[in-house]
Amino acid sequence: MSGKFEEMINNAKITELLNKKKAEEENKSFVLWILAIIGAVAAVAAIAFAVYRYMNPKYADFDGDFDYDEFEDDFEDLDDFKDDEKKEEKEEKEAKIAAKEAERLRKQKEKEEKERRKKESGPSWIQRKIDSLTKEIFSDDDMK
Q1: What is the DSSP-derived secondary structure letter of residue 61?
Q2: What angle do CA 50, 53, 57 make, to 5 degrees?
Q3: Can you say how many angstroms the Cα of residue 38 is from the centroid of all Cα atoms in its chain?
Q4: At a CB cut-off of 8 Å and minimum separation 6, what does 142 contact?
Q5: Where do runs of H (alpha helix) occur along the chain?
Q6: Mean pLDDT, contiguous 10-residue spans, the chain (144 residues)
Q7: How far apart are CA 43 and CA 3, in angstroms?
Q8: Interior CA angle at 11 toward 8 and 17, to 5°?
């Protein structure tokens, strides 16, 4: 008797497990259906938007009241802007050249000033000492 009772309990457990798996599969399939529907709606919306943009471009409300002279003025302003840029670049190059020339002249003046001071001060103390020692050694008085 106990064998039949255990068998019935085991059958009940197996049936319960099968029902749970079916319920889980139904839930998974339900979620997949929901995602598929959302994806389809999004695809239809994207296609509708693309068709709308193709059929109604932004410039479709053009009246024909276009002032061509004003449009040409924009290009003239652009040309003026390019000319201004070229002038600024040229001025910058000239300024750099002038700065280099000024630096070269400053260094040349410093060098000339240094040489002038050296000439005015005469020989250095070591040169004077060498000269005096040379005179002492090679004087005529000692040679006789």
Answers
A1: G
A2: 160
A3: 41
A4: 136
A5: 2-55, 68-121, 125-137, 140-143
A6: 76 79 79 92 94 76 56 60 82 92 94 86 80 80 55
A7: 60
A8: 145
